[in-house]
Amino acid sequence: RGHQDALGGVVSAAAASDEKQSSSHEQQTSLVLNDLRHYLTGVEDGEADPHETNDDDDSNENDHRSDVALPVAAIKTLLGVIKRSTANTMMGLQADLRKASDDMIAFVKSSSPNNSLLLGGRSHIALASGCELFLKYVTRAFLELPDFAACIAQVLERGERFADISVHSRDRIAELGQAFVQDGQTVLTHGWSRVVSALLIRAATVHNKHFSLVILEGRPDAGGIKAAKLYADAGIPTTVVLDSAMGHAMESVDLVICGAEGVVENGGIVNKIGTFPLGIVAREMGKPFYVAAESYKFARLFPLNQRDLPDMGGGLANLHFVDTTSWHATNTTRPTTPKSRPHGDESMEDSERETVRGLVRLPDHVKVENPICDYTPAKYITLLFTDLGVLTPSAVSDELIRLYQ
Description:
Elements: H1 2-41, H2 70-84, H3 90-109, H4 113-119, H5 125-144, H6 148-160, H7 162-178, E1 186-190, H8 194-205, E2 212-216, H9 223-233, E3 238-241, H10 246-250, E4 255-258, E5 262-263, E6 269-272, H11 275-284, E7 289-292, E8 321-322, H12 325-329, H13 350-353, E9 359-360, E10 373-376, E11 383-386, E12 389-391, H14 396-403
Parallel strand pairs: 1-2, 1-4, 2-3, 4-7, 7-11
Antiparallel strand pairs: 5-6, 6-10, 8-9, 11-12
Helix pairs in contact: 1-2, 1-3, 2-3, 2-5, 2-6, 3-5, 5-6, 7-8
């Protein structure tokens, strides 16, 4: 009996230890995701979430997220992990950083409505690249400084400067790329990209170039429409066209510039859905296709087709289709939805469906796919504007080797 009691005590102690460890991991995950949200939104934990908007508010001010790019937000979050870590060996610290990276990637890949609004259609590729680059840097720093405390101090010091470096990278790309935009030209762009907007606005406001802009609407999150307001406010003549009209619009433009979620090893890019057909149309019509992207988006991926891309996640699980022309026909300028439904809720009850004018009902057996990104092969890309310089697609692999050495 004594042995049984002792064994029972050991089992109970082990269970209590596992429960405590599980609780600690959950707490660390919560801190990591709170930090990531903070850097992506610029909102401290506990403050009002700017994405929880009033359905009656027609403005899109809340759609403009923090100026921090996704990989930079991830690296800032990892710096917080280092500050909180109780590890006293490099192996323990790397385990903490790897777990935090995995938690962030899983968060970005999830398909909840709130995450989709927060990320604005961005995939996890840029985040994963930033995390991998930072982990590689931590390892290299330890090899240079074997003293653990000194190594951590150096990583934190240099890491804090990374956000400033990324902003300067964007400025450098904008200055390099604006030289390819000339007076009197018409530029076609797709989606919302911080670096592309910096490039075009610099060309217009700093270098006083007079050009017009055609931007695709950017379904399903209306990224292009949101960006169009920014360009119009900067004084750039802007026209929004349907995504399906890219071929029609291509005849009247001189060049195409877009951003990238990731630049892969073979010189191709992963970007907002619709970039691949845009590259095909541009090449077929003899229009240069330029990509603007920071070097921290260079990803160690080698896709050959769309099926080779990793699972993106991040998209809304359900899409609802509305004939927007019916709003005008019924003297309604916007669909009406019950105020009780939370902003961004994907679910829609039958009673709610009746309140949306022009909603097209699909049979349950009809499958709807909603990919957020596609892969554009290098052969469709003319040049890449990066903080490392203006590169041909074939030069990307060499730069990747230098980055990860």
